[in-house]
Amino acid sequence: MQLDDWLEYIQRLHPSEIDLGLQRVRQVWASLGAPKVAPLVVTVAGTNGKGSVVTYVEAILRSAGYRTGAYTSPHVRHFAERVKTTGDCVSDASFCAAFERVESARGDQSLSFFEYTTLAALLLFAEAGLDCVILEVGLGGRLDAVNIIDADLAVITSIGRDHEQWLGSDLRGIAKEKAGVVRSGRSVVIADSASAQFLVDPVADKGAEPIIAGLDYQMARQEDGTWSLTSKDQTYTGLPRPALAGDVQYANAAAAIVAVLRSGLLVDRESIDEGIGTAHLPGRIQCLGTDPELIVDVCHNADSAAVLARWLESQPKRYTRAVFGVMKDKDLSAMVRVLARHVEHWYACSPKLSRSMSQQQLGLRLADLGCTSTSCDSVAAAVNTAISASHIKDRILIIGSFHTVDEALLALEQRDG
User: Fold this and answer.
1) What is the DSSP letter of 242?
2) Which of 75, 164, 190, 230 is the most buried (most CB within 10 A)?
């Protein structure tokens, strides 16, 4: 089978798209021989910012000459974005070979899409001869498939309300789930000082050493965008502006540097500057055009919408249209309220996913929130309608979900083709 055939097959295997628990995935991993994926494993959990931290850690270590593996999810445009070795996406043929091994090992054990693909990623890392693997937790932490691998070092980015159907709405309970990736006697970088209050107790219960932003390390931003970082391990001044857009990227970059310093790997200042200044992660306040300005961002909850809103506040004012598609389980009202004063017109659409809110329902909800909107039959239709209505000085946002951005990028490719 080709990669697309495998992905379609894996999607059909398990009755639930999300089914937290480690018993199934551990059983199959043991059948695969449970190989060691790398001498050093860094696991990144949290509500928002996980992918950014993974990207910065990977970029710094690659700049220092280390062979790295990075696992992130979901992807923005192509499935291969999820698994990188030494900075490159794994080939389709390698994925197919790994899927064949998982299929042979699982027997009659049902696996969710994420469990199946995570096992394949771990196999690919184990075979690549890497120095370090950085793993992004998919959902939660304690019961996420990534957690079958013991982390030598963990990073927890933030604690917020998201995926409440599976994690609940109590921040202390959510923090306990996120802290499930921490291991006794190991270090954990807590990247968000506001979330530290919820994480201190579960981290202490794990017998791990917390390294807390604002307490164990501090950062200071300068007017020109450069910044400084002071920790127990090192002090740096004149660090470059993070390559990813948004003020939260300073905190993400700081956590990545602190994690690298605590990892035990030797990394010089030049590698840190290069990694922070050149890291690339698609779909995070990413500008795709200027006439009109076209911005894609995978913000999909209230906290990430607030990050986008703060970025918009720092930009020149433009008439702004938003192509908007969200999942049914999201706190739509909270997302829209933080963005509403920056958006003049919304284009409601529904990505091709069972969990998506319909464009009709989304349009009604937007109207209830006092927003002017147009309901479109598809993400592609919303993109094309927004572009047709825009003037050269306008701004178009494409937001609400990884799936919305994915389908929008496909539509843009087809327009350009």
Assistant:
1) P
2) 190
3-class secondary structure, 135:
strand
The answer to whether 339 and 370 have CB atoms below 8 angstroms apart is: no
Tell me the pTM: 0.92
> Domain 286-416 has what CATH class?
alpha beta
The Cα–Cα gap between 397 and 386 comes to: 9
**Which CATH code, of 3.20.20.140, 3.30.70.870, 3.40.1190.10, 3.40.50.11810, is assigned to 3-278?**
3.40.1190.10
Query: Strands 227-231 and 235-239: what pairing?
Result: antiparallel
Q: Are strands 132-136 and 153-156 parallel, antiparallel or unpaired?
A: unpaired
Between CA 243 and CA 287 the distance in angstroms is 13
Enter the tokens of residue 235: 């002090």
Query: Rounded distance, CA 145 to CA 168, Å?
Result: 19
Q: Which ranges in the chain are annotated with CATH 3.90.190.20?
A: 286-416
All CATH 3.40.1190.10 domain ranges of the chain, comma separated, are 3-278
What kind and span of H or E run contains 346?
A: strand 345-348
Closest by CA position to 195, among listed 230, 153, 231, 156 = 156
pLDDT tens digits for the chain (417 residues)?
Answer: 899 999 999 998 887 777 778 999 999 999 999 999 999 999 999 988 999 999 999 999 999 999 999 999 989 989 999 999 999 999 999 999 999 999 999 999 999 999 999 999 999 999 999 999 999 998 888 999 999 999 999 999 988 765 556 566 678 888 898 999 999 999 999 999 988 999 999 999 999 999 999 999 999 999 999 999 999 878 999 999 999 998 999 999 999 999 999 999 999 999 999 999 999 999 999 999 999 999 999 998 998 999 999 999 999 999 999 999 999 988 899 999 999 999 999 999 999 988 899 999 999 999 999 999 999 999 999 999 999 999 999 999 999 999 999 999 999 998 876
